[in-house]
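step: validate -> pass
step: tokenize input -> pass
step: predict -> running
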Amino acid sequence: MMELTMHPNFLIIGSQKAGTTTLHRVLRQHPQIYMPETKEINFFFKDELYRRGAEFYARYFAEAADEPLRGEASPGYICHPDAPARIHALLPDAKLILTVREPIRRALSQYWDNRRHLSEPHTFAQAVDLYLGDEYVPGQKGYFSRGTYMRYIRNYLAHFPRRQLLVLVFEEMLAEPRAFYRRIFEFLGVDPDFESDDFSQAFNPTTIWKNPFYQILIRKPRYQKYVPAKARRLFFWGKQIRFHVPPIDEGLRKRLEDFYQPWNSELAEFLGRDLTEWKE
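step: predict -> pass
step: emit ->
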């Protein structure tokens, strides 16, 4: 068994579609922080990886034996029901960083990411009918359950003291990136004055392919179920164009707002701040 010092002492535990890719990229640039090039190691998320044991996990940090601060980013950790206990068993003193995003926009981003990769055969309205629920189930898509943040925060606080958890609002990454990252650096105990050109790059522009075969599949998602996973890349060719998530029906939005309202209210109280920007 490798020494515990070869494991991380902080984790970015989520959330999916809430800036974790940029956060991983920025923290890797900090001279006092080591993070593997691989994002989403998912050791505590995927059962088949967790069963491989702590020594397997330590291999990702083999180059960081002398680094005082080591971390990794796997945004699925926040919602997996077994992740808090698994993390605590191996890393009881780890600092945990969570980003939260307005949950309807977060769900739309995840849904359209699947749709544009030809892995979602339902319309968004159909997805709401199929998947709307407030508890994440491993193996399911979790478009909506991933946004009930307080459910998962409570799970973590059953294992970790509050001082080891930093919760940040994704929208602040966009509005005040320097202050956003400074809070993270102060939480981790590294130089808070570090700056990166990537501070203002909260996400990468989304693109889709313009070729007519791909366009049929993305516009009529019911046909996507006939495309085997291994064959999807055959449609990813030609010119790419910017993609903007289309607006949703107001009745559907109201349904989702009502669904998230109690969860958002509890989160606002927990954070000691209002989340009125989430209602805009």
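step: describe -> The beta strands are 10-14, 71-73, 95-100, 165-169, 207-209, 240-242.
step: cleanup -> pass
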